[in-house]
Specification:
With 194 residues, this protein is an alpha/beta fold. Helices cover 38% and strands 14% of the residues. The protein has a five-stranded parallel sheet with strand order 2-3-4-1-5, covered by helices on one side.
């Protein structure tokens, strides 16, 4: 199968809408964030939807008039852009919303400085793999049923054609949707075009 035909290619995954549980929606979550003085953390292991949720919330914040500054830290790039503390930090104000995706990458010293500097911003939301740093806004979870729903949207054939059941795929990767879809991309790439 060619890359542009692969149902698990990046642009298809990125187009998936965030799936809210029945008990929660964007408005309720943002109400809770405001109640936490607009300083909180989204908690989940890798591949459980934190980054996708941030993208889903962006239009809501933009509608509220926030000036959004988003920083993404990963194991392979665990630092802020060089010189940001002398440029961007000075521009933060009460209209600034700071989104820090991957805050666990910061050293204790870097976290202390970030927390100190972020006081001048009107809002802060971080993502972490485990609780800590700021009050927990929401602890995200995936499930086999969530994976089944996503696969039904992505895979054009019967789910029984996949290399394993959604439950088994979910168990093998401990709910990490990113790894599950990477595995499925590789598997689909080996399939003959229909």
């Amino acid at each position: 199968m060619r890359a542009h035909e692969n149902p698990f290619r990046a642009e298809r995954l990125e187009s998936l809408a965030f799936r809210w549980p029945e008990s929660l929606n964007a408005e309720r979550l943002l109400d809770k964030w405001h109640a936490l003085n607009r300083r909180a953390a989204l908690i989940a292991p890798k591949g459980h939807g934190k980054t996708t949720l941030l993208g889903t919330l962006m239009p809501h914040w933009e509608a509220e008039g926030w000036i959004i500054r988003r920083y993404v830290l990963r194991e392979e790039s665990p630092r802020f852009p060089q010189g940001y503390e002398h440029g961007e930090v000075r521009q933060w104000n009460r209209q600034t919303l700071l989104l820090l995706d991957g805050s666990e990458q910061l050293t204790p010293w870097s976290w202390w400085r970030w927390k100190r500097w972020s006081r001048q911003a009107g809002g802060v939301l971080i993502t972490r793999h485990r609780p800590g740093g700021l009050p927990t806004l929401w602890q995200l979870e995936t499930s086999p049923s969530l994976l089944t729903n996503l696969l039904a949207e992505l895979w054009p054939g019967s789910l029984s054609d996949l290399p394993a059941s959604p439950e088994k795929l979910w168990q093998q990767r401990k709910g990490d949707m990113r790894l599950i879809f990477r595995d499925l991309y590789d598997w689909a790439a080996q399939q003959e075009p229909s």
